[in-house]
Amino acid sequence: MPSHIHTPWRREVSGAHPTDRSDSPMRRTMAACTTLLVAALSAACATSGQTQTKQADQNAPATLSFWSTGGDDETATFQKAADLYHQKHPNVTIKVQTLSWSDAYAKLLAAATSRSGPDIISGGMTWTIQFGARGAMVDLRKHGSDALKAQALPAQWESAVSPDGSVYGVPLDMSTMALYYRTDLLEKAKVEPPKTWEELTAAIDKLKAAGVKKPYSQDWGNLDWIGYFNYLYQAGGSFYTPDCKPSLDTPQAEQALTAWADLYRKHGAPTATVEGSDALDTGTAMVVAGNWIAKGIDINKPKLKGKWGMTTMPAGPAGPTTFIGGRAVGVTSFSKYVKTAADFVTFMYTDEAIAAITDEARKRNISYIPPRPDKIVNGSVFTPEQAKVFEASIRTGKAAPGCPGWDESASDVAKQLQSVILGKSDVKTALAEAAKVMQRNAG
Fold first, then answer.
1. What pLDDT was estimated at residue 51?
2. CB 400 within 8 Å of CB 159
3. 308-311 and 398-399 as β-strands: parallel, antiparallel, unpaired?
4. Closest C-alpha among 127, 176, 163, 172 to residue 145
5. Are 129 and 160 in contact (CB under 8 A)?
6. Do residues 93 and 79 lie in contact, with contact meaning Cβ atoms separated by under 8 Å?
7. What is the distance between the alpha carbons of residues 390 and 147, in angstroms, rounded to a whole number?
8. Cα separation of 89 and 415, whole Å?
9. Which helix (H) or strand (E) covers residue 434, if one does?
């Protein structure tokens, strides 16, 4: 099942209902998807031996479908790029259709299995790897993806590439985390925004001593593998070795889980997830949350205006590595317009396409970070100060593992990590059990 590695941009306007967050609805849909995956697996695996769909006349008028996982506002931003492509190629029309995160994986898997459906898809960073292994995706290396690799964030690109080197999808956008804080509460406790693990725990203690009842909380990744991810890599560890062997039996993994769990067990981080801007608004001094809340705090929480700031997450002993989420976009092998679809994917990396998407995202007040790091600050939907924080996070970031079996393992790995926080297991046992899950699903 898919790991919840991407949080869709959120529309940030007063009273708006947030789009689905992949760290919760994806978990809720795993059980539903499991039955479909088991039933379809044998048939799906057989697709890799099928011949490629007969291609249509490239000179004839063509209408391509693009199934975009996310919300309607995101679909509208990508449609701007599709319309711009149509202006340059009048014979080609690309229609972008919304798939909600709650059922996107199941629908895309069904399309991959039946070899019918869209020409272009987007979804979680590792989804195209899974569909490609089933013969349902085009290897974009045959269509110039190397040119895009040079423009993308290396760590995110690696997450989208199959272990055998096939490129069934390329990064479509990025998301990351930051430490948001209440400037008034930190000033009250005479605390500077923490830059290290040690400074973070010291700041929590000082805030408590100053009478701040809610010093710290986590939003994206709370009690989940994404939350642990930051500490694991900041300690110098990783989920897998370079050759995709589970790598949780290390001192670094133990150090990371101990430090992360202690934020809950010793320092009082709430196990209940509170949305980042809500946490700040109700008196939490520091909160780890995604980039999608930055644009809306002043709009949705007017009482906080002038009372909050943001910075990169505190760094661990091995450095400041922060989780990078995002979506991948790829071309289905059953499309009649493979060449055109692949050309559109390449077009989405151009300056003009990114500018069109960014402009529409800004109008809709949603948080879009392009797949090209050089475009994060210049022309960003964020303020210059916010963009610089996200640029710094992404520059040292890492994306979710692209190893076989990770998507099937993620939710069970999270349960083992949670067991330490909830006092049901010790660090070594939980990591050993998590590694067993990863090994079992590696095939």
1. 62
2. yes
3. unpaired
4. 172
5. yes
6. no
7. 24
8. 49
9. helix 427-441
Phi, psi of 32, rounded to the nearest 5 degrees: -65, -35
Amino acid at the residue 249: D
Residue bearing tokens 């980042």 = 276
CA distance 130 to 95: 24
- Give the CA distances from residue 320 to residues 90, 95, 231, in Å, rounded to whole numbers and listed in that order: 47, 40, 9
Cβ-contact 334, 115 below 8 angstroms: yes
| Mean pLDDT, range 80-91, rounded to an integer | 98
- The CA distance from 412 to 248, in Å, is 14
Tokens found for residue 239: 């989920």
CB burial readout 131-160, b (16+ within 10 A) else e: bbbbbbbbbbeebebeebbebbbebbbebb
Q: Report pLDDT for 5.
A: 47
Which residue, chain included where needed, has tokens 């906080």? Answer: 304
Q: Which residues have a Cβ under 8 Å from the Cβ of 5 and sit 6 or more positions away? A: 22, 124, 125, 126, 159, 226, 325, 326, 399, 400
Residues of the chain with pLDDT > 70, as a percent, come to 88
Domains and CATH numbers, the chain: 62-175+324-398 (3.40.190.10), 176-323+402-442 (3.40.190.10)
For the stretch 86-132, pLDDT in tens is 999 999 999 999 999 999 999 999 999 999 999 999 999 889 998 99
